[in-house]
């Protein structure tokens, strides 16, 4: 934090204000171009052919019919495609290795690892010809036994060491013994299905080779991840790969890594010597992009008659693919949410012959909070206690497992503010007691929690002699307002008008930027931007002091104000334009370039003791049709402690989006997998039901707006916390409305009746 931005930056002219997205007009006027909208001379179009079995070997492929289609340029299979290099290994110290989506070397093997794995690419003069020809490619297979049913396979305990970012285990005191002797106990088994990604923009790639230089247009959450993976897979230096991603139509974790479509578009372009565009169909996204793991959880809680928890047992099972994916930190929430002398947390996982699972908004915590927050609610029913009171009675004053004192935690206040605003005191204490005509009305709460990580970034800031400022950083924008908030921050730091600042992003030719996943981007870029702005002001001051009549003689930066587009000391000062003109300079530019390996090492270490977290209180009201069991969410309030809010408009919209995704998770979404073939049965928006406007009530979002003491400007990431606690709040409200505890998501009407 710099001298001239006191109180966590919240007193700035722009920081804290609900500024409209600077990229909004380009999007709403249709000028924004997405990855599939770049045209090149001689552009060809690719389409994928997918395996129809889960596990086995391709015996033969029939491609003649496809080749005969008018306009077909090439049909690439494992028999004729140029090879790609292997994916390599995951390392927590190499951000680009996090970009490995699966270990499959597409079109370099006859082996099939999941139903939907791409086995051929058709390249044609038009998208339609490519799609049609792809539909004519057939294969015969040798079938091998496939494990595709999460419910029937046996998991293994996850080792506590050796898997990056996996820190879910704990064994404090004797949780089993304490459970056995507690006067009040609940012991519940939860299950959640696989969920799949449905970003508005399906994955698309436009790939162009120029000799051994590659340009890729790709909607991504990790420019450098895509760049690093492509360099590795195609055996060229990183600097030969340029990834451009100025607009991304939603990510949510599904665009954190390059999947098969990206790799195969690049491969097809290399094989045909033509620029190639590959746009996945919605079904193609389900086939090739991972989703959220299915899960089971056991949550057992033991409490005394005073409501104090004596024991927390939380165990979980998730799945990966044999070809990749990461077990999820499902029990993570139980490290941080409730105080108890005895805590046992253990995670297990299994491998299946399905596409790798992947990040999906609050991986681990979205699922884990459903189990934990449902169980605490059920315990409150058993004890005849108000569920908020029960939570507050067990609010920890330090990490329940780590024992570390929280630097920042305001969950009590979130509940107090929320209860008042939501009218929690209107809640009847009995289940099924609130009725409005045919609707049974219920109210539920749950705690939201998301561990806050922070990386760093490289950034340059350039001040021009005309007073404009250009910030350059290869960060990503997928609709959440990332460059808008950086524009606000820079305008405040330098004391210039918002309109004077331009932020360049979405291009690997820019200085390295943190990826936009794990809710890390804004804090990571802000830290770098603040450092660079301080450096810039110092350079400008040094320049100014060299002038004979400088008002800054003997003055140091901390004594100065930055305002009115210049540096000031009391009423005396000079504008940047004056300073640069007097010095005969047309610009001053500084670069901030942190030591990345050291930073990554620190971050990996920090995750082990969870130095920071965002928390919140989710309040909801549901209406359940007494005759049909239909559940409607009728009111929502989320009160969040996400540190300083830089932009209320973009922050609210992200938190709302998370809550809406949670409503889908709770009530309508699930990926159905045919246990005979491993085929996804519902790979489309008509059969996989995400919430539409009619399913979403007005969502009231509130913040405490208290700066986090160890974060840049006091901000915490807020991209993911919105979804956490949502399914539990809904299940708890359904329990209140109907008396039924649903342990199995989604809460469909058959489970309520
Ligand atoms: Mo997030 S699931 O890390 O995009």
Give the topology, please.
Elements: H1 24-28, E1 44-50, E2 56-62, H2 64-67, E3 72-76, E4 111-112, E5 118-124, H3 127-136, E6 138-143, E7 156-157, E8 170-172, H4 175-181, E9 184-192, E10 204-210, E11 213-218, H5 223-234, E12 241-244, H6 260-272, E13 276-279, H7 282-288, E14 295-303, E15 309-321, H8 333-336, E16 342-352, H9 365-383, H10 387-393, H11 411-422, E17 434-436, E18 439-451, E19 459-464, E20 469-472, H12 482-494, E21 501-504, H13 521-545, E22 561-563, E23 566-569, E24 572-575, H14 576-582, E25 587-592, H15 596-607, E26 613-625, E27 631-641, H16 648-667, E28 699-703, H17 726-738, H18 749-752
Parallel strand pairs: 1-13, 11-12, 15-16, 20-21, 27-28
Antiparallel strand pairs: 1-5, 2-4, 2-6, 3-5, 7-16, 8-16, 9-14, 10-11, 10-13, 14-15, 17-18, 18-26, 19-20, 19-25, 22-23, 23-24, 26-27
Helix pairs in contact: 9-17, 12-13, 16-17
The structure holds dioxothiomolybdenum(VI) ion.
Dioxothiomolybdenum(VI) ion (MOS) binds at residues 221, 251-253, 256, 359-361, 363, 517-518, 720.
């Amino acid at each position: 934090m710099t001298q001239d931005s006191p109180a966590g930056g919240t007193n700035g002219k722009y920081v804290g204000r609900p500024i409209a997205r600077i990229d909004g007009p380009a999007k709403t006027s249709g000028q924004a171009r997405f990855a599939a909208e770049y045209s090149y001379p001689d552009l060809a179009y690719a389409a994928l052919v997918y395996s129809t079995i889960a596990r086995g070997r391709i015996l033969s492929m029939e491609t003649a019919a496809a080749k005969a289609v008018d306009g077909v340029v090439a049909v690439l299979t494992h028999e004729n495609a140029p090879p790609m290099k292997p994916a390599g290994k995951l390392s927590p110290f190499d951000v680009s290795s996090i970009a490995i989506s699966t270990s499959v070397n597409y079109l370099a093997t006859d082996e099939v690892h999941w139903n939907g794995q791409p086995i051929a690419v058709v390249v044609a003069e038009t998208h339609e010809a490519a799609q049609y020809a792809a539909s004519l490619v057939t294969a015969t297979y040798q079938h091998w036994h496939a494990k595709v049913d999460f419910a029937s396979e046996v998991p293994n305990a996850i080792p506590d060491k050796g898997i990056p970012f996996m820190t879910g285990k704990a064994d404090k005191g004797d949780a089993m013994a304490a459970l056995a002797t507690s006067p009040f106990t609940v012991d519940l088994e939860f299950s959640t299905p696989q969920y799949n990604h449905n970003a508005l923009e399906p994955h698309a790639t436009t790939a162009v080779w120029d000799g051994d230089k590659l340009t890729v247009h790709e909607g991504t959450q990790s420019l450098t991840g895509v760049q690093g993976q492509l360099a590795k897979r195609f055996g060229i230096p990183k600097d030969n790969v340029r990834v451009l991603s100025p607009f991304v139509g939603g990510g949510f974790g599904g665009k954190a890594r390059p999947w098969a479509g990206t790799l195969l578009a690049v491969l097809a372009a290399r094989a045909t010597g033509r620029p190639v565009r590959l746009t996945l169909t919605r079904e193609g996204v389900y086939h090739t992009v991972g989703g959220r793991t299915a899960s089971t959880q056991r949550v057992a809680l033991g409490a005394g008659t005073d409501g104090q928890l004596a024991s927390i047992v939380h165990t979980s099972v998730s799945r990966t693919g044999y070809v990749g994916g990461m077990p999820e930190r499902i029990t993570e929430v139980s490290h941080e949410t409730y105080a108890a002398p005895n805590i046992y947390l253990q995670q297990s996982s299994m491998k299946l012959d399905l596409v790798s699972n992947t990040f999906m908004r609050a991986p681990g915590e979205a699922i884990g909070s459903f189990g934990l927050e449902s169980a605490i609610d059920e315990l409150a029913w058993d004890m005849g206690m108000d569920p908020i009171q029960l939570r507050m009675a067990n609010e920890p004053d330090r990490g329940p497992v780590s024992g570390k004192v929280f630097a920042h935690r305001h969950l009590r206040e979130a509940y107090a503010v929320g209860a008042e605003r939501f009218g929690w005191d209107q809640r009847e204490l009995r289940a099924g007691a609130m009725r409005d005509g045919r609707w049974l009305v219920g109210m539920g709460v749950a705690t939201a929690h998301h561990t806050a990580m922070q990386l760093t970034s490289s950034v340059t800031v350039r001040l021009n002699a005309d007073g404009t400022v250009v910030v350059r950083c290869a960060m990503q924008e997928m609709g959440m307002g990332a460059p808008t908030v950086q524009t606000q921050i820079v305008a405040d730091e330098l004391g210039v008008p918002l309109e004077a600042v331009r932020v360049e992003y979405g291009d690997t030719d820019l200085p390295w930027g943190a990826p936009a996943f794990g809710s890390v981007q804004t804090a990571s870029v802000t830290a770098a931007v603040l450092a660079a702005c301080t450096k810039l002001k110092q350079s400008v001051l040094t320049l100014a002091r060299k002038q004979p009549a400088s008002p800054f003689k003997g003055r140091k930066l901390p004594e100065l104000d930055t305002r009115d587009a210049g540096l000031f000391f009391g009423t005396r000062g000079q504008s940047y334009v004056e300073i640069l003109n007097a010095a005969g300079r047309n610009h001053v530019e500084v670069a901030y370039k942190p030591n990345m390996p050291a930073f990554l090492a620190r971050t990996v270490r920090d995750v082990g003791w969870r130095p920071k977290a965002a928390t919140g209180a989710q309040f909801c009201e549901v209406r359940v049709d007494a005759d049909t069991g239909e559940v409607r969410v009728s009111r929502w309030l989320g009160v969040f402690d996400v540190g300083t809010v830089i932009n209320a408009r973009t922050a609210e919209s992200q938190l709302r989006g998370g809550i809406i995704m949670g409503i889908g998770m709770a009530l309508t979404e699930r990926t159905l997998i045919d246990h005979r073939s491993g085929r996804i049965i519902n790979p489309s928006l008509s059969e996989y039901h995400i919430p539409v406007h009619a399913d979403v009530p007005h969502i009231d979002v509130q913040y405490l707006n208290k700066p986090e003491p160890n974060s840049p400007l006091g901000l915490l990431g807020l991209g993911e916390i919105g979804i956490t606690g949502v399914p539990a709040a809904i299940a708890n409200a359904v329990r209140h409305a109907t008396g039924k505890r649903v342990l199995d998501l989604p809460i469909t009407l058959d489970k309520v009746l």
